[in-house]
Model the fold of this input.
Amino acid sequence: MNWHENKRVLVGVSGGIAAYKSPALVREFIRRNCDVRVVMTRAAAEFVTPLTLQAVSGHAVRRDLWDAEAEAGGAGGSGDAGGPGDASGSDVPGAPGARGDSGMGHIELARWAELIVVAPASADCIARLAHGRADDLLAAVVLAAADDVEVTVAPAMNRRMWESAATRDNLATLAKRGARIIGPAAGGQACGETGPGRMTEPEYIARELIGEAPPLLLSGAAALVTAGPTWEALDPVRGLTNRSSGKMGFALAQAARDFGARVTLVSGPVALESPPGVRRVDVVSAEEMFEAVMAEAPGADLFIGVAAVADYRPAQAAAHKIAKQGARMRLELTRNPDILAAVAALESGPVTLGFAAETENVVANARAKLEAKGVDVMAANWVGGDDGDGGGDGGDGLGNGGVFGGDANAVTLLFRGRREAEKLARTDKYRLAVQIIERVAPLVTRAGDGDGDDKVAADDNGGDAGDGDKVTAGNNGDAGAHAGAGARHRA
Ligand SMILES: Cc1cc2nc3c(=O)[nH]c(=O)nc-3n(C[C@H](O)[C@H](O)[C@H](O)COP(=O)(O)O)c2cc1C
Done:
């Protein structure tokens, strides 16, 4: 297994001192590109707040079996932003990954999960699981999980509780049924004793279950990403826009986050959920996007311009709906600011990566744009496809057809000062984003003070819950702070 696979992980948190480690565990899974939901026992909420776990997972936390709203399905209850049973992404019943709609939230959770990880697992919780109890939400979900759901238990308790015959028997029962037991580790305990009973470290658990995390190539760096289309109003109900879905930009934001960057995503109107841990700024028009980007860009180390920004807008947006007129109508347009060029022109600005969607002469046109705008890297996209599934391979044979809206893409990367282009083969947009970031991250490194050790510097990604309205998680450290000693700009 590896972090490209986007596993659905249910983290169960029970009531023990080690519950303070559970937000870190959630972050480890998120960093490995997993989709995470959290269920807490009532006792767990005495040790760690549901709000913290909501912030790091990006979804409301479920605690109660007797939650009528959540049990009814809907949006997952309790203000869940896209939990099992809601109408977004792969959670849609019947969509890949979903196993059908029972109309009962706890059953949906059990069906949704591919992995269930109870960490920390208290002695009491282990006993309930071993005895097939279903009188709280976590135990009920584990009991309702299908045989192919991998259940892992990470015990954490006082060493005498751990050594007790009852706990040993309960764990043996769980192991016999196929559950995986990770830990506990030995060492000093919160109760003052020394011995086995400490919860295994989150990083180790995530590595065991998913695999290595992506390398922190962008640790300490601030990445600014634009995504989606813009909407240029003609009147209050009509406008000029394009077919960009935002998927490529969101995938790049997610990949930059996974590589350790603090990410701000400036998005035009799209129907996509923000990746947890990414700060999102919503805009509508190109001018709004320009304002938002220019406010953030001076503090960014890497700018990724993926948004399909309208080159022109109506010279005047009518205050009222334009009435039908004669057989012809003339529309006057005016130029929008060129966001990518403006960022590239900043003194000590970020390393810039632009996307050039072309329908012909893809590489030549993208190379011309790169030179003209002073951009560091240009990702050339052929958008001549008409099928939307990325199957097209026309034009110059780059195979980039159907870029807009599809889940797959291919690009050719052009680097300033480098003659040869690098073609990245068609794959899903997240994997492609990972490959792009892997190639661009070294430029951000090199842009530092030249001693080569900038990258993995100040920020250990240790910040906590996000701040600001749309900051949904804090796996990237303090969303407000600047990269500081981390990787920096072009000279
Ligand atoms: C301060 C305090 C710390 C506790 N730490 C642990 C612990 O580390 N491990 C454990 O198994 N139980 C611990 N307990 C006991 C559990 O919280 C208790 O058994 C509870 O019923 C567990 O509920 P749950 O399994 O539903 O989360 C602790 C209790 C208190 C008051």
Remarks:
- DSSP finds 14 helices and 19 strands in the chain.
- The pocket of flavin mononucleotide is lined by residues 14-18, 41, 43-44, 122-125, 156-157, 161 (CB under 6 Å).
- The first strand starts at residue 8 and ends at 13.
- The domain at 8-209 is CATH 3.40.50.1950 (Rossmann fold).
